[in-house]
């Protein structure tokens, strides 16, 4: 592959090597076709995955029932709760996809990752964590069943499950692209290999193994990303961190330094729509609420969201900076998987292996969390009703893990690109579940019909725009008048109107469970 022929020339201790744009680069000569480095990295990846599987096996002794498997027995302390939230968020979207997108279009791409997703964690901590934890739920669909009724439970589950396929596919594609770049493994083969590893990883220990491995992986990752960010800025500053920062600001195309586009109101609306998809669309998701349910108290759940949100924004901006740095140092380099290229250029061989290892582990951590989330909903809320509870929730969840992984592989093969998959995955929960979740917590129940109306209207409106590829809300009707509104956010507002317009009438199921929210 052409990418594997890139050679980065750097300062080698004896003599000076000149890199792109005449920069003096450091740390020795690094060649992407170095088979010795590839061999050592391959051994390191195998060893690390083996250790993580060992942790998963060890955690199995903590699993006695579905409560242990799905929400770690509701016993996670603050640091484990915060670290598993941060590790789940810190995947391919932040490390690889958003970095490449910032390299391509500039800082406006941070609306989705990391700004939107980081604010989502803060919003969850302030408004959702405590009331949801007090309900002692296993899945988010349990909330809709208890608050509105069984039909709302099933409908919410049918919205939640497919919304994850795109997100999981993002992780598969991004990590497979990195393996293709380093080892020459064809992309489709890489997707299958990663799916098999992630599926087995998830099957073993459930939420306990996910949490324990997350804590190890995120610590290694944060150290690696800080070292890489420091090294990259020092290199473009010819040995000075401050000079590197000034060089980044002066040599980057001005338009690429704009976080929020304000040149046109349509651009601002587009940015705001993408931001809301991440900041609000991530709230009614199983992976987030599953970690809230797993905390040992409502206070821990709330504080874990705050800690993870702040850390996510702070550390998530480092890959963003690296995306801009890559434009200065390697303007002709590939537009995909630029972060591993920077690691190979600026870090010693040992540190480069450690960083790529940590990056792979972080994506795998997101994969197992993302697979477990929809599988939990399938095993707890959908399959028992279809099979009339002939099998245990634990068994059904494990079967569902395999099915979710397979569906995500198909999504990865069919998707247009990783960033669009990520955005589409977020939108479904925003348009279908945010309104009934929020009003179900903070207002008197209007009954099952109101929740169902909101879900159906929101999803139908968004689905119409998705099928016809309309980039603005009701584009054929409103565009001639210059009205260009974000489709996802507008569809969610339609869902709000449907909820409020439905007659106030509590179903017997919702009324009987009203005390469960108190």
Q: Which secondary-structure class do the elements indicate?
A: mainly alpha
By DSSP (H or I, 4+ residues per run), the number of helices equals: 21
SSE sequence, one letter per element: EEHHHHHHHHHHHHHHHHHHHHH
**What does the largest sheet look like?**
2 strands, antiparallel
Strand order, sheet with most strands: 1-2
Q: What would you say this structure looks like, in words?
A:
- This protein is mainly α.
- 73% of the residues lie in helices and 1% in strands.
- The chain is built from 21 helices and two strands.
Describe the protein's topology.
Blueprint (H helix, E strand, L loop, with lengths): L6 E2 L21 E2 L3 H25 L6 H6 L6 H12 L2 H14 L6 H16 L1 H5 L6 H8 L2 H34 L3 H50 L4 H11 L13 H15 L6 H9 L3 H32 L8 H9 L2 H39 L5 H22 L3 H25 L5 H21 L6 H4 L8 H15 L6 H5 L6
Antiparallel strand pairs: 1-2
Helix pairs in contact: 1-9, 1-15, 3-9, 3-12, 3-13, 4-8, 4-13, 5-11, 5-13, 7-8, 8-9, 8-15, 8-16, 8-17, 8-18, 9-10, 9-13, 9-15, 9-16, 11-17, 12-13, 14-15, 15-16, 17-18, 17-20, 18-20
């Amino acid at each position: 592959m052409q990418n594997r022929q890139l050679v980065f020339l750097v300062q080698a201790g004896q003599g000076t090597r000149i890199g792109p744009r005449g920069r003096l680069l450091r740390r020795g000569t690094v060649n992407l076709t170095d088979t010795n480095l590839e061999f050592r990295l391959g051994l390191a990846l195998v060893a690390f995955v083996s250790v993580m599987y060992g942790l998963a096996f060890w955690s199995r002794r903590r699993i006695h029932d579905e409560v242990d498997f799905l929400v770690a027995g509701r016993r996670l302390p603050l640091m484990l709760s915060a670290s598993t939230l941060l590790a789940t968020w810190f995947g391919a979207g932040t490390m690889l996809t958003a970095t490449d997108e910032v390299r391509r279009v500039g800082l406006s791409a941070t609306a989705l990752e990391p700004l939107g997703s980081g604010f989502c964690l803060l919003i969850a901590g302030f408004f959702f964590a405590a009331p949801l934890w007090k309900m002692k739920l296993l899945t988010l669909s349990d909330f809709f069943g208890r608050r509105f009724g069984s039909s709302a439970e099933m409908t919410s589950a049918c919205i939640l499950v497919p919304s994850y396929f795109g997100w999981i596919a993002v992780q598969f594609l991004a990590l497979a692209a990195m393996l293709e770049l380093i080892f020459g493994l064809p992309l489709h083969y890489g997707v299958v290999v990663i799916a098999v590893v992630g599926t087995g990883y998830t099957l073993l220990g459930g939420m306990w193994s996910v949490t324990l491995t997350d804590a190890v992986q995120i610590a290694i990752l944060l150290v690696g990303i800080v070292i890489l960010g420091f090294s990259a800025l020092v290199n473009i500053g010819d040995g000075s961190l401050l000079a590197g920062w000034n060089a980044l600001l002066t040599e980057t195309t001005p338009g690429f330094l704009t976080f929020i586009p304000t040149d046109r109101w349509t651009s601002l609306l587009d940015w705001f729509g993408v931001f809301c998809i991440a900041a609000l669309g991530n709230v009614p998701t199983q992976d987030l609420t599953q970690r809230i349910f797993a905390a040992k108290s409502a206070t821990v759940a709330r504080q874990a969201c705050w800690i993870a949100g702040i850390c996510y924004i702070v550390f998530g901006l480092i890959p963003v900076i690296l995306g801009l740095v890559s434009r200065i140092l390697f303007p002709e380099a590939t537009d995909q998987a630029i972060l591993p290229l920077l690691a190979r250029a600026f870090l010693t061989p040992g540190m480069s292996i450690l960083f790529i290892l940590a990056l792979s582990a972080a994506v795998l951590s997101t994969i197992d969390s993302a697979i477990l989330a929809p599988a939990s909903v399938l095993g707890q809320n959908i399959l028992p009703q279809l099979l009339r509870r002939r099998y245990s929730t634990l068994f059904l969840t494990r079967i569902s893990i395999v099915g979710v992984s397979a569906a995500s592989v198909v999504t990865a093969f069919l998707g247009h690109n990783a960033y669009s998959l990520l955005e589409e995955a977020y939108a479904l929960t925003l348009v279908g579940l945010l309104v009934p979740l929020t009003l179900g917590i903070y207002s008197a129940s209007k009954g099952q019909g109101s929740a169902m109306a909101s879900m159906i209207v929101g999803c139908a409106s968004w689905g119409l725009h998705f099928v016809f590829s309309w980039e603005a809300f009701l584009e054929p009707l409103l565009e001639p008048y210059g009205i260009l509104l974000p489709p996802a956010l507008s569809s969610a507002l339609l869902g709000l109107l449907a909820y409020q317009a439905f007659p106030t009438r509590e179903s017997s199921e919702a009324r009987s469970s009203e005390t469960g929210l108190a």
